[in-house]
Amino acid sequence: MKRMYKRAALILLVLLCITGLAFASSGKGQKEAAEEEEIVIAYSGFPGGLTPFWAQMAQYVKEEADAQGVKLLDMSPTQADAAMQKDSVDNAINRGVDGIIIGAVDNRAFGESLDNAAAKGIVCVAVDTAIDHPHISALAQTDNLSSARLLGQYIVDHTPKKGKALILGGTLGHQTGDARRDGVKQVLEANAFEVIFRACNWDDRLAYETAINELGAHPDIVVVFGAWDPGALAGLAAVKEKGLLDHIKVYGFDGLPPAIKSIQDGELTATVKQDNKQMAQVVVRSLVAQIKGQETVKKLLIDGFVIDSSNADEYAE
Amino acid sequence: MPKKNSIASRIKHEFQPLLGLLAIYVIFSILSPTFRTLDTFKTILTQAVILGTLATGSTIVLISGGLDLSIGSLFGLIAVCTGRMYLFGVPTLLVVILSLAVGAACGALNGAIIVGTEIPAFIGTLGMMKAYRGLAELLGANMDMSQFPEAFQMIGRGYLIPISIMMATFLLVYVILSRTKLGFNCYAIGGSNEMARRAGVPVKKYYLVYYTVGGLCAAVSAIILASRLNFTNSSWGVGLELNAIGAVIIGGTSLTGGVGGIGRTVIGVLIVTTLNAGLSHLGVSSSWQRISIGAVIIFAVWLDIMQRRREASGNTVL
Fold first, then answer.
1. Nearest CA in chain A to B29
2. Which of the two ends of chain B, N or C, has the fewest CB atoms closer than 10 A to its terminal CB?
3. Does the ipTM exceed 0.90?
4. Could you tell me the residue range of the domain that residue A57 belongs to?
């Protein structure tokens, strides 16, 4: 019995000593790391496994990081979970990276983390979704409001019979989703459409269920707009299931390959193309330039454009 | 001789997860210079708060031989309730009290359904998992629930307050489990429900209490996260119940009831959080982090089964 206690205590003691030594040498380790001149940046984006837009974004960020000769750590969460993403940003900060790119699951989650990054002098930039914090030093995104207005006008021009329009939105309060909703809504309401907005939390399943329910409750819906392409395709599936494809036009936002293919197939009417490659390039270049202390672009709003049957072949992969 | 063996095996049980945690910590400390900093240590503790408080409730339910799959959805429901109350202009103190009350009431409802209908806990709480999620979606639909008052944000901000709340939750449940009749009977019921009933333990009444504690812990956890992130929405907590149960099992609490403790859960939670943080520091992607946590869960349960077998065969021989 005593031997057992002794052995356990000894193992504990040894482990504690090793940890202590590790802590003691941490200053040295950091110094050594600092001596290496390689720039290390972290990327924490919306999970790529959930939508092709973000899978492409992660790929483009990596390609640009390679082109810039910096080391990239992809620390994106696997779930669209704001808390999990905040943890990943905190881990990147503790890891002592030189800069962080955030493609926010929810732009409201990072206040404390960004305060911490500011205190440690880590440069932070945002891609796709603006984050309202003074330490975010650059942003590259689609001009969601003006692009959504553009789409709104397109919808008005291509829908002779006015009626109800269903908007399947992102998460309420999310900067990108709100801008897309507002842009389309403003133009449609100014042109005698009645807009029904439903927040679907960027969740394709929820978009489908919402569309099915709303189509049942409002037989006079003539337009369905999904604020992100997978949500629009979920809405399209509901429209098809109800046998209403001849009466209802469905629109998306993102310009992803499945949406473009659907346009080519004559199902989805149109989508707004976002240039996520340019976003990734601009944001990585800006981050690296800031780390090097150079002047750079701090805000880039990229105009989206409409892809419909007239130009879908041009953008199809 | 059998007594000596059983004490030795108990010590082994108690120390194994702790040694595992220390080994993980030491390995990451050696592999990553940035991991062995005080900031990282504080971050690990902070990241453990949400899972830790939630898993505390799961511990007491699992020891009693129960199972609550609804706590993730309940977590989302409480978060939405908190946000909705602020939209109605309810003052912060009342928001916190009412959110805790909703959590406790929903936990008690879970217990009542299970003991009242005698359906298996798995089915009963699976049903409530769906119901709470639906309710959260209904209450949170088309609502922007963010920008809470400063007083509320204080609860989850920084290190000190959230970690203190977590420690207080641990301590409370530790005292319940180790110093009260409620705790003693928790082990008795989890060990053998039927034996406890025959011994005159009011099993149904106790189950109500255990599930209530589970709901209360889910509420504490949701309040801290809502405060930390300064917004809420109905999709919160998806899959969180399995993370909590996983952490409890990694710590060494038995899924079949009767064995376990809050100290083990603390270690289990820290193992999960340390693994996540450490692998992040090594630049390992989130997907691999999940795979490694899965492997640790399987390993922990396998180890537990092997030890029990060894003990059983040892006892037979003796």
1. A22
2. N
3. no
4. 38-141+276-302
Per-residue pLDDT of chain A (317 residues; tens, 9 = 90+): 455 555 555 555 555 555 555 444 444 444 444 445 789 999 999 887 667 888 889 999 999 999 999 999 999 988 888 999 999 999 999 999 999 999 998 888 898 899 999 999 999 999 998 898 999 999 999 999 999 999 999 999 998 888 999 999 988 888 889 999 999 999 999 999 999 999 888 888 889 988 998 998 898 999 999 999 999 999 999 999 999 999 999 999 999 888 999 999 999 999 999 888 999 999 999 999 999 998 887 888 888 999 999 999 998 87
CB atoms A94 and B228 under 8 Å: no
**For residue A15, is it within any domain?**
no
**Six-digit token pair at A287?**
């981050």
* Long-range contacts, stretch B116-122, CB < 8 angstroms, 24+ apart: B121/B66, B121/B67, B121/B68, B122/B67, B122/B69
Q: Of A26, A88, A106, which is closest to B37 when you measure between CB atoms?
A: A26
CB interface of B with A, residues 177-206, below 8 Å = none
B60-95 pLDDT tens trace: 999 999 999 999 999 999 999 999 999 999 999 999
Cα separation, A88 vs B303, whole angstroms: 30
B181-191 and B160-179 helices cross at what angle (nearest 10)?
A: 70
Question: Nearest CB to B290: which of A78, A94, A112?
Answer: A78
Chain B partners within 8 Å of A88 (Cβ): 280, 286
CATH code of the domain containing A114: 3.40.50.2300
- From the list A28, A87, A93, which residue is nearest B47 (CB)? A87
Cβ contact A112–B228 (<8 Å): yes
A92/B234 CB distance under 8 A: no
Question: Is B277 within 8 Å of A91 when comparing Cβ atoms?
Answer: yes
User: With the C-alpha atoms ordered A105, B231, A165, B139, is the resulting torsion angle positive or negative?
Assistant: positive
The answer to the question of residue A239 being in a domain is yes
Residue A270 sits in the same domain as residue A282:
no
For B41, the closest chain A residue by CA position comes to A94
A169: left (phi over 0), alpha (psi -120 to 50) or beta: beta
Domains of chain B, first to last: 16-308 (1.10.3470.10)
B154 in contact with chain A, both atoms CB, cutoff 8 A: no
